[in-house]
Amino acid sequence: MKKFRRLILLRAFLLFVALTFFAWLLFKDEYLYSILFFPLCVWLMWFTIRSQIRTYRELQDFAEAARYRDFTRHFSLSHASIEVKPLRSAFNDINDVFKSISSDRETQHQYLQKIMELVDTAIISYEEKSGKVMWINDYFKKLFNIPYISTIYALKRRNAVLFEKISETAAGQNGLFSFDTAHGRIKLQLYVSSFQTGQGSFRLISLQNINEALDETEAKAWQKLLSVLTHEIMNSIAPISSLADTLKDRLASLPYTEELEDIRTGAETIKNRSEGLLKFARTYRTLNKITQPDLATIRAADLFENLYILLEPSLIQKNIDLNIILKRPSLELNIDINLIEQALINLLLNAVEAVKDSDNPTINLQALEDNGKIQIKVEDNGLGMSQEILDNIFTPFFTTKKSGSGIGLSLSKQIMLMHKGNLFVSSKPGKGSTFTLQF
């Protein structure tokens, strides 16, 4: 820097001396010497101006690089002139600082992006005024089957219900809603927040899938309720059944009369109904008898083969086609085979019942891997189900069959929860149903 100052002072002094001497020659009428000395004055002026232009160009180049955030450029010092070298050195120092800041920001951005992609929460952010989507994570795209949207208004065409819920929820509020997704109807917790930056106002939307947490809580509540109910029913009905049986034996030894026959019939009815209630209680106690699953690795192909052998006679008799779909025959599952077979048998028997009135009764049994998660799908082309039935289908005791117990689907879902998975259903009236076991 000192050399640069001395150089500037020297050039200014030489230019001043030259111009003064040139003026003195003109004053003395020494025109010949003035003409001879004039090129030296011009050269000194040009040299000074060129130095300023060179400095300006260096500043312009740096400003252009800063404008386009090109902080990777290096300003060479080896062939730089004395007046330019301090500028280039300062520019390199500034670039190094900005590169360090940019690297730190990029690292933080990468960390944030990876975290947002790992969480099982759908997240989308957009500008309030224009609706332009600034960021959307993969879980949002997968959950709602939306590969890409440029503005939040494009969401209206793909999922009008979701767009309406997001639009009508004010910043700072949250709510619990049910949505139809690619995985069936699930419950989501909606959170909305807003923030302001130099670029404008933005809204941040997060949708957390709370289906599994609710299912687990609901399953535990039903287990406790069933435990109390079955205990009370068995304790109350067992003595009634025993007394009815004793009364029936006593009446059998008495002479026949019309009045006694009516009493015998009543006692028989009480006994039969008591035994039916006891059988009912014993059946539902199976919901509480399941312990921790005994996990083992098994090929999906072997699991499906066992199921087909078991159900083949019934399928042939009812003329139902069962299509087994395995894109990867080597696919393996870490499961309790006895429990999963029980769940799949329940689903397949329900599918058989659903397609009994179809023109071409067909059931598809499929195993696949979707984003690292293994799924088993049971699909039928039956009559399908209404939304009212779908909302209650996994509730214990709920059934649409005349002879159904309402335990099969509830038990199947509990089995999946024990495997740290879940059971989903999607159905449309007249188009069949699909049950998905997701591990």
Structural domain count: 4
Helix content, binned percent: 55-70%
Main sheet record: 5 strands, antiparallel
Structural class: alpha+beta
Poorly predicted tracts of residues: none
> Please, how many helices?
13
Q: Tell me the CATH architecture of the largest domain.
A: 2-Layer Sandwich
Written as H for each helix and E for each strand, in order along the chain, the element string is HHHEEHHHEEEHHHEHEEHEEHHEE
Mean pLDDT: 76
- Number of distinct beta strands: 12
Offer a concise description of the structure.
By secondary structure, this protein is α+β, with helices and mostly antiparallel strands. 56% of the residues lie in helices and 20% in strands.
